[in-house]
Amino acid sequence: MEMERRTISSELSRLEIREDGQPPRIEGYGAVYFRAGDPGTEYRLWADTYERIMPGAFDEAVKADVRSLFNHDPNIILGRNRGNAATLRLTLDSTGLRYSVEPPQTALIRDQVLEPIRRGDVSGSSFMFRPTKVVWVEEDRDGRTVDVRELHAVELFEVGPVTFPAYEATSTGVRSTERAAIESERREWREQRQIDLQQEAARQRKIREMEAEVALTMARL
Hints:
Blueprint (H helix, E strand, L loop, with lengths): L3 E5 L1 H4 L2 E3 L6 E8 L10 E4 L2 E5 L13 E4 L2 E8 L7 E5 L3 E6 L5 H13 L4 E18 L2 E19 L13 H45 L1
Parallel strand pairs: 5-11
Antiparallel strand pairs: 1-10, 2-3, 3-9, 4-5, 6-7, 8-9, 10-11
């Protein structure tokens, strides 16, 4: 599967700087789990296609070697959850994937990352991942049929603050290459679903035929 990116808005990310007499840490949610009844946790990929991050999706992912970058830029690395320093901490709660990173104390980080976050100019977070378990479901809503992509497990590569958050209930900012891969994935699901429906219909016909034969045999006794 293709590597994908998602970003979430300031309201969902709750991005902030914490100091408490210690070196500043950037904290926020990189991803928020789907909660039934909360439309803000289900994200529209494009017309009639939605995505949900299911609880448990990051259970194994947080054990991997993960970096924190600013704006996905490998030249502006903020931290890492492995190595001697372990400057990135990843935790999971009922809300989703939370990260806390202690960035390098350099002028570049202070001026281009920390200060814009303090001012509220940088307000969202993002994560880079590869889905490892995806489940598609079809739902009826207000008289129309929509497809929902559920992410049940992912491989996590990176999480951090971004300037332009887009992963909201109205949009995810999915790139064209990602959309092509997801569309291909959905077509495969629809094709397999059609095969499954045909097989189930054939099985039900067979059951009815057997029941009819049994009923006829019993009637002749």
